[in-house]
Structure formats: structure tokens, C-alpha cells
Amino acid sequence: MSEYTAIKVLWKRELLRFVRAKSRIAGSLGMPLFFLLFLGTGLNSAISGTGGNYMEFIAPGIIGMVLMFSSVANGLIVIMDRQFGFLKEVLVAPVSRLSIVAGKIFGGATTSIAQAAIIMLIMPFLGVSFALSGMITAFAFMVLISIAFVGLGIAIASKMEDMHGFQLVMNFLVMPLFFLSGALFPLTNLPSWLKVLTMIDPLTYGIDGMRGALTGSSAMPLWMDFGILALFCAAMIALGAWLFTKKSTGN
């Protein structure tokens, strides 16, 4: 089996698992729709008299939330595959461990982007309009966010054996990253201590980049958002691959 074939097979497996898990798709869309319908609509009506549109502001943040939550959750699949024996069967195949990691990262990123795309298709019906000219740039940010956090999820899963423990760690890590990313509030005019925390958060640059591409309003230059997010993405790929390989070889 060639390395390319191994990557393709694992990528396709993640897609088939995603398509067949109807409850997983519905569950992943519940919280984003809740934020849009209740938080977004409520606050949008509250500030409509000021000339702002909170629904359009929050929309890129909701897309980032879907990407991050679903991407990190792919680490749970790694733990399930290990416990049910599938991972052991894959590891004895004559392919490199890096190809296995690549297949899982690309598969997880594809399913995460698919979930975000579903949310984006719903948003126009809720009164959200995007600049079509920025879709390609926004898609590039979506790819980086999903790949980076799939790598992070694999890295965490490589150090854990229990699914419940992974979920606790995921909630402890993911929720602060989301709320500190500027998904729900502007990054300008923040207290200095809070601004420092938002600048440390890698998701900040992904959401700010998507917001700039889709609405034309961003707190930082797009090249800065893209560059920092790309560095974080590369670091998470390397970390996930290293920890997964180390775990699979028993070191």
C-alpha cells in the first residue's frame, strides 16, 4: 500500500463516518444555531438603533466555533479507534505513521469544514450577508483553523486513554479559547489584561481573518492573521504527528 493510498483511505473513512452519523451532524449544529438565533438575534435588535449589525459581526465567530469544536473532537475518534482495535490494525500496515496522521488530519478537517459550510448556508436566511469576494480568503482561514485544531485534538488524544477524560480536557481548553477569541465581542477597546489573553489565543487570528474577509472589518491586518495562524497550524501538525508516533511506537 502506497503512502498516498493510506492517506486517501483514512480520509475517506472519516467522511463516511461523518455522513452516516446523522445524530453527530445534528448535534454539532445545535449550539451554533442557538448562538445565532438567540444571542445574535437578541443583541442585534438591541443595538440596531446604533447602526451596527451584530448578526454579521458574530457570524464569523460562530463559524470559527464550529470549526474548532468539531476539529478538536476528532481526538475522541482516535481514542475510540484505539480502544476498539482499529488503530492497532492500521498501525501494522506497511505505511508510515505520518501517513496515518495525515489521513486523520485531512479527514477531520474536511468534516469540520463541511459542518461550518452547513452553518454558512443557513446564515443568509437569518439575515446575515457576506462579501462574496472574500469567500476564497475566508475558506483559506477555515482550512487553517480546522487542520490546526484537528492536530491539537490528536495531540491531546495521544496522551490520554479515557474518552471521558478527553471530553473534560476538551471542555476545559476549548471553551476559554472560544470566549477569548473575540468571536462574541470586538477586540478594540478591551482592558489591557484581557487584550493580552486574546492575543495569546490562536483562534483570535482565525476569526479576525474570516471577519475581515467576509465583512471587511478586522482588528488586525489579514496578512498578520494568516501568518500567525499558519505558524500555529504547522506547530499543531508537528506536535500531533510527533505525539501520535511516539504513542504508537510505545515510547
Topology:
Blueprint: H1 3-20, H2 22-47, H3 54-72, H4 74-83, H5 86-91, H6 97-122, H7 135-158, H8 163-179, H9 192-200, H10 202-215, H11 222-248
Helix pairs in contact: 1-6, 2-3, 3-6, 3-7, 3-10, 4-7, 6-7, 6-11, 7-10, 7-11, 10-11
What features would you highlight for this structure?
mainly alpha, globular
Brief sketch in words of this structure:
It is built from 11 helices and no strands.
Give the oligomer, counting copies of the same chain as homo and different chains as hetero: single chain
| Percentage beta strand | under 5%
| First-last Cα distance | 25 Å
DSSP strand tally: 0
Q: Evaluate the radius of gyration.
A: 19 Å
Unreliable stretches (pLDDT < 50, length at least 5) are none
Please give a structural write-up.
- There is one protein chain.
- The chain is mainly alpha-helical.
- The protein has one domain.
- The chain is built from eleven helices and no strands.
- It has helices at residues 3-20, 22-47, 54-72, 74-83, 86-91, 97-122, 135-158, 163-179, 192-200, 202-215, 222-248.
- Helix 1 (3-20) runs parallel beside helix 6, helix 3 packs antiparallel against helix 6 and helix 3 (54-72) runs parallel beside helix 7 (135-158).
